[in-house]
Amino acid sequence: MEKLKAFLKRKNIVISARRYGIDALGAMAQGLFCSLLIGTIIRTLGQQLGVQLLTDIGAYAMAVSGPAMAVAIGYALKADPMVLFSLAAVGWAANAEGGAGGPLAVLIIAIVAAECGKAVSKETKVDILVTPFVTIVVGVALAKLIAPPIGSAAQAFGQLINRATELQPFWMGIAVSVLVGVALTLPISSAAICSVLGLTGLAGGAAVAGCCAQMVGFAVMSFRENRWGGLVSQGLGTSMLQMPNIVKNPRIWLPPIVTSAVTGPLATCLFRLEMNGAPINSGMGTCGLCGQIGVWTGWLSPSETAIENGAAAITPGAMDWLGLVLISFVLPAVITPLLGMVCRKLGWIREGDLTLS
């Protein structure tokens, strides 16, 4: 056992929830952002502007989402270069075999392939053959064996959430909004979770609402402490910056969580806000305005996942735009600070509790 522990330490193979559930998952979301998400935006712009070059560029970027995710995961796991480059083939195979649930298949399979590749890396004199051989064979073989059932399970669970939200928009609007919003602020990737589950439609709209409640809510509520820099870094960046303060005083989390419980059902019941762009957008909130761009692209050109869930292109009306603006910006910027004022008067939030370090 001691020899195994020493070997794993030497190979930097750390079997932990943080390494796989936070580092790898977060990196996967970045890989998705730099391929599928940005590609969707570019392709939609090309289609709407009638510029074929942009449409083609976007399509190429979207096509390499599998390799991008796998390489990003390998980077997070601190894989050696030979392992890292070999993961491109693994990611392509896992994403293709996983179908609509490809991102979850890529996450699991890329982790296993990367760790196997790291284990044999630089252990032989023919490393240039052994390392890529082991990484690719292990990864692609797993993709053929387990990616389809993983993808089907993820797709089925995502469709269950989407369907449940359609049937019970009020209660599911609250649940999805609160849970995805909390995931956004925690050191895990809400974007990757939404992508893995394929959250679109009303469930996607509720997820956008929850993320915006956290980001815009924290940004405005903490304006007196953090001023304009904090407004931008949290409102357009991430509410995760408040995590150290939440650990010190969990009560500062109450206003944005309560806000998400309000805006979620408003999004699903009143405005019928649907996010039918790439599912990753559902977990992005106002980060680079990706949540709002996802809603817009979903109106004009729904993603493949959204189409599978019954979505169709629409021409947005005044109510659609009003709902998007209110849910994304106005309501979080009003409700959360008001709740924050109540918490300050009760002594639950003290001066300096929201100051970013």
Structure description:
This protein has 357 residues and is mainly α. It has two domains: 2-156, no CATH class; 168-345, no CATH class. It is 76% helix and 0% strand. It has 16 helices and no strands. Helix 2 (17-49) crosses helix 14 (290-300) and helix 8 (169-185) crosses helix 9 (190-197). The radius of gyration is 21 Å and the shape is globular. It starts with a helix and ends in a 12-residue tail after the last helix. 54% of the residues are buried.
How many domains is the backbone divided into?
A: 2
The arrangement of helices and strands along the chain is HHHHHHHHHHHHHHHH
What's the alpha carbon Rg, rounded to whole Å? 21 Å
Query: Proportion of β residues?
Result: under 5%
Residues in helices, as a percent range: over 70%
How many helices? 16
- Average pLDDT, all residues: 92
Point out poorly predicted stretches.
Answer: none
Main sheet overview = none
Oligomer: single chain
Determine the N-to-C terminus distance: 42 Å
Q: Briefly note the structural class of the backbone.
A: mainly alpha
Shape: globular
Give the strand tally.
Answer: 0
